[in-house]
Amino acid sequence: MNETRPKTPPTYEQLRTMAGQELGVSEWTLVDQNRIDQFAECTGDHQWIHVDPERARRQSPFRTTIAHGYLTLSIIGALALEMGIVPENTQAAFNYGFDKVRFIAPVKVGARIRLRTTLMSMEDRGPGQYLMKAANTIEIEGEEKPALVAESLVMLYERRNRARA
Fold first, then answer.
1. Average pLDDT, the chain
2. 69-83 vs 33-43: helix axis angle to the nearest 10?
3. Of 26, 37, 109, 138, which is least packed with CB atoms within 10 Å of its CB?
4. Global pTM?
5. How many other C-beta atoms lie within 10 A of the C-beta of residue 144?
6. With left for phi above 0 and alpha for psi between -120 and 50, is residue 46 left, alpha or beta?
7. How far is CA 5 from the centre of its chain?
């Protein structure tokens, strides 16, 4: 288990005071050819640099297949949930988009990646509604440069106690 993962998720009250603090680091996850192929099948992006290991070995500057940038970006959500940074009393959490996304280094097939997240802001958007902005870095095991950096926006809806009639 990762030592930086919170033992219990932060509360909404705590998150409001944590801007600038690291929320956590995920476990490493493998990006294998099967995962890349499934993403290609799902999106229709069958570019050879992702799905043709033999051609990539011969013609790619990386000498192997690499993950789609959007595959790497899409993994952020699952790894963030794994870290336990969403308060327990959350009714719903929705992807609200990204502000800045930069693909810095390719994720080669067989690489392991992890997510490092820092809270940038927690903005009240109405009763029980919050817009969480976080700086995310996808790190590649053994590599100096990260795969990507992205500022994510997540709309959180706090579960409210409702009086029964």
1. 92
2. 110
3. 37
4. 0.89
5. 7
6. alpha
7. 15
